[in-house]
Amino acid sequence: MVNDTPETSRSIIGIPLGDIAGVGPEIVAMALAQPETYETVRPLVIGEISALRRALRITGFHHLDIHVVSGPAQGRYQYGSIDLINLANIDAKWIPFGRAQAEAGRAAHQFIENAVELCQTRQVDALATTPINKEAFKAAGIQDIGHTELLGRLTGTTDPLTLFQVLDLKVFFLSRHVSLAGAIKLITRKRVLDYLQRCTGALKALGLPRTRLAVAGLNPHCGEHGLFGREEMRVLEPAIVEARTLGLDVAGPIAADSVFHLARQGEFDAVLSLYHDQGHIATKMVDFYRTIAITIGLPFIRTSVDHGTAFDLAGSGQANPLSMTEAIRLAGVYALDYRNRTMAQPTPSTSQE
Prior knowledge:
2 domains, alpha/beta, twelve-stranded mixed sheet, globular, Isopropylmalate Dehydrogenase
């Protein structure tokens, strides 16, 4: 199959292979086995050839060729040939599926480091990441607890924003990987106002025509004027009023049992969720496999599947590739517009020390 889409209209999307003891290589293989993937992007895998070969064998896509390249400029970016930067930093035959291993964590970290460097030097337009395992990172002595924290450190970005998108529902998160008690402590007037400003800027960076934000309530029925909690009255309402005085289009707080539905119906362009599970449950109930995580605030767009390494499915060929396919597609949708809006300044240094 020959792809006649002009190269300039297809962003180069870097795809680090993730933890090879999990389903990452398999869902990448399945996503790149779909001709439609190549219609909108130029996918480039950053990983290790033995892991990719194993994934192609497991998923039954023996007809796909692996084209090893030294850099993005050498890629073919045509269906039937998977372009791979082979770091040769791990041998898949020594890595069993289904458990956290230091070697796999270390290799996954190196895949990401290489992919970030390619984005920092503007050889790659965006990243679509596959699952990593926090226990494997810890076993390898890596301190970063997740992709977002790692990408923030590598790019020198403080507290990057997390946005979930599923179909046309978009949800930001005031906090991520902290306990519920810890998340409640982070709900301050200053933090909420800061996030409302940054979330508005993020929507503009994505090229959206409107930036109408809704703030989810914390307590049942938004506290019923203090009957079930006073956070809405004491923190959220003042922050929203101040945001409006700054010219931001913000509504709320709106009870969490209805705000996501209203946004899904088009009343709002995005919702600010106050803690991890509040927004995760809402988006995943719309469509679990199409829920995509987007990291905003980095010098480039990063999308990701919103599931883990799925050790129980690894090696079976039964993992669902829809989230990976959608992550690659969305990275292509946002990549160039985001870069054009956020990268007018000189290319940043790749050194973070």
